[in-house]
Amino acid sequence: MQNNIKLGIRFIEYLGGIHDIVDYSVMAEAAGFEYVWFPHDIFMKNTWVTTSAVAMATSKIKIGSIGTNPYTTDPAEIASYLATLDELSNGRAVIGIGLHTYDMVNWAGVDCKQVLRRTRQSVKMIRALLKGEVVQCETDDFHWNDQCYLRFSPVRNEVPVYVCAFGEDYLALGGEIGDGSLPMLTPPASAPRMVKCIEKGLARREEQSTAHDIAGCAWLSIAEDGAAAEHKMRSMISYFGPYLEAEALATIGLHPSDFDEIAKLIKAGDYQAAHAAVTPQMLKLGLVGTPHQVIAQIEQLADHGITQISLGGPIGPDVPAAITLLGKTVIPHFKRA
To answer: Looking at domain 6-224+288-335, which of 1.20.1530.20, 3.20.20.30, 3.20.20.140, 1.10.10.1800 is its CATH number?
Structure first.
């Protein structure tokens, strides 16, 4: 059993208004979390605003957006945002670039056929901009002239860039070019597969890295009452389950088609029926239960090579109570190790 795992927390907009999310982030810092992450999805509240607000309200916790994709956000904008957030937070910025699904950007007519090429180029361009370089390039995706450089000096010229990815080749790219990786662990049983794919990319690096942070993004619902935690997880699974990749679902014997009826209920606005349609097998898509149960599940992830766990989703039936509970039970357990 390995307990040297870093603890991060992930807040989605459904947990409350922007002021609530900032308050939760302050609570997470006080509880002892090292990272706070925010999914960056189109047509949702903008996480660049959220991360800026959190930077002003906190002093220690590292702050980043997940799924900042190089299609609806250009590398020029990403680099400017990242350097500005790093200055605002006094060197606490991190970022996850890439996609966990094509579905949402497809709503806006985005063609992701060359996502590996575009992600690779974007990461390279962002890093060069942070170093103060002129990034002049002519590629299939970008047409930048000699005026493409930052007009200010970043606080740090190397800010950790993680890659958000899914699928074997994309996950391997994260291992090859990222300072870390942010795979979705939905379900947690898919962790060995995710780590194996990322390690293929690590083996391709010109300079071998022992510091690559595999920050698995897991859904969490925790409470002293395990049944209450399970009930809350149903809302997360019913809404996001239809978007999960087939290979990951297969690790617990599920297929995307298993969510067809749930997706219809969500589209019709019948959320209560959708929650009820979540099966016991589907509940294995997240970390669910009492502190003791959640600790055991995180320990299994550490044994499989996950070096940071990003706990997101409902968090628990009562979010502030769940954060407090994590700070009193789960975080001390791993910090003692």
So the answer is: 3.20.20.30
